[in-house]
Amino acid sequence: MTLHLGDTAPDFEIETTEGTIKFHDWIADSWCFFFSHPADFTPVCTTEMGRTAQLADEFEARNTKRLGLSTDTVGEHVKWIEDVNDTQHTSLDFPIVADADLRIAKLYEMIHPEESDTAAVRSVFIIDPDKKIRLTMTYPMAVGRNFDEILRAIDALQVGDANSVATPADWTKGENVIIPPTVSNEEAQKRFPQGWDEQRPYLRLTHLS
Fold this sequence. Notes:
This protein has 209 residues and is α+β, with helices and mostly antiparallel strands. Helices cover 32% and strands 23% of the residues. The protein has 2 domains: 13-151, 3-Layer(aba) Sandwich (Glutaredoxin); 164-206, Antioxidant, Horf6, Chain A, domain2 (Antioxidant, Horf6, Chain A, domain 2). It is elongated and about 60 Å long.
């Protein structure tokens, strides 16, 4: 099974550090940042779990739930969380999936044999309230994720959905956005009365009020 952007995220029921969840029901009407880790008690993973906890308010402001996954048991996760909180000076407040049998890691193609047969690579899935996969990222085991980029990408997806626009390279919230080429100037005048900067007929930048 190959997962593509726009696919419905596979549903599952699984034990986590906060009890058993049914994935789609747990997401409800929120967005979801679902991310995997190779194993508990590993250095890069510890910093990433800590950073996710530290950014709780940022994810909440984006109506985005956080769900971690590591190929260990709930008992191991609980002990690991103590280390995360202690070393990263935070309080981890989101569930971590217990996937010791690799069922979910394989379902979401998080196992890359050239990296490991038993540990998940650093996968990211951004899933919208309709349970559609909107963005994926895959990092090797030795490279920690850039959480500024993860938050930026969620912002771009949400602004794009709300305004039917695209976002340029390195865009951050509050900067100009792109009117898609599929929108005629006549339609753009109705939707973007503030006007736009037409650098080329296919490249029109506007500022959202």
